[in-house]
Amino acid sequence: MRFDRRTLFTTGAVAFAFGGMARHVQAQAVQAETYVNEVEGYGPLKTDPNGVLDLPEGFTYRVISQSGETMDDGLLVPGQPDGMGCFPLEGSLVALVRNHELRGRRAEHRNLGPGGYNQQRIAALDVSRAYDTYKDGRPLPGGTTTLVYDMATGKTVRQHLSLAGTSTNCCGGQTPWGSWLTCEETVETPGNADVMKDHGYVFEVPATATGLVDPVPLKAMGRFDHEAVCIDPRTGIVYLTEDEGDGLFYRFIPNTPGKLVDGGRLQAMAFRDARAADTSNHKTRIWSPGDWRAVEWIDLDDVESPNGDLRKRGHADGAALVARGEGIFWGKDELYLTATSGGPIERGQILRYVPSRAEGTPGETADPGRLQLFVESTDIRTLNMGDNLIVAPWGHLIVCEDNYSTESRNHLKGVSPDGKLYTIGRNIFAGNSEFAGAVFSPDGSTLFVNIMFPGITFAITGPWSAVRT
Predict the structure, then answer these.
(1) I want to staple 104 with a disulfide (CB 3.0 to 4.6 A). Which of 12, 61, 70, 167 is the partner?
(2) If 0-12 CB within 10 Å is exposed, 13-18 middle and 19+ buried, where does residue 49 land?
(3) 326-341 average pLDDT score
(4) Which pTM was predicted?
């Protein structure tokens, strides 16, 4: 699918025609309202005459990248753009480092990789710089791309592949030292897929890299269905989520803060007063929105988990279950994470964690960290399976919905400091068309976000400071 990325599309712009794949996935006009606001936010959404992205009055979007576009290295922008970080460069330039959730074992994903259909352009990729290949020698389609965008001109300056040969790069997170941690949401092995190496690791991609980086798996951070990470800049401790219905919430205490390749200690969270608790409220309600629980952290062994059973062993040792832990983001002295299928209707929870003042040291025994059930969905029109999330410059959360229903739509949701939800945007594509990778520019003026399918990266501007709660 091809748009003209140089054109600014607004809620009042002239319509443009989709071709081929876009016509296939384009939804019918929305017949009934798909969302409910608990607070006003930015007001009602306005129908986009282009049939792409509905936004409130005063907001505009620009398409800045599309899957299938030719990059500056001769490869194609891969499909399935997911998690994304934004980093300042020189002058008015920023770098967007984007994941591409292309699974090695899925044959149809091979054609969505940087080599294109049947990997016809794969000769432009130095296979020796790829982490893994199929048994036929061609690199796996997953990885990251880096897009350099000029905030002053509103134009994409260049794009290139920055990590190659990984699988199912879902989300990740930014480091305080200017790199992107990209996470493999898979535990593929040569025994269960047509690959040559084990997968399920975190990789680091410096934002300033101008070509492919060395693909070094950070194995001490565990092998599991990684989703996202965030880092406490005060301690260097890394917090990690796991996209499994019976997943855990992890932390990694590095041997050398800021140098994750040096290894460290991986742990899983447990409630102090309820070993092996299930935080989802699926079968038994153990807490309600607003409740806090003191936590402790359990050391994990054999973290490379050749049997892919790290979460099961951790739960057996007392770690709490989290229903599909996905997005996680560091705020002001605290972090937020989503449990995408948590809650009695299984449509999502948002948890808030406040670390101990002695986090990661023996002193936390007397002064433990605390976890709060911050939001729990009771209506799919209010929150329907929140996935990636960020803390906005004004302190609210922005959450990307990820439901695969053809009867509903995915939205960008805002969450006020008191846990009230409002709607910021609506993606009109149905099916595998989640919002992903929401991240603000360093100056707070622009929200960048992806629509996974058909593969579009947007820059959204508007009166962000005018939110009403």
Answers:
(1) 167
(2) middle
(3) 98
(4) 0.94
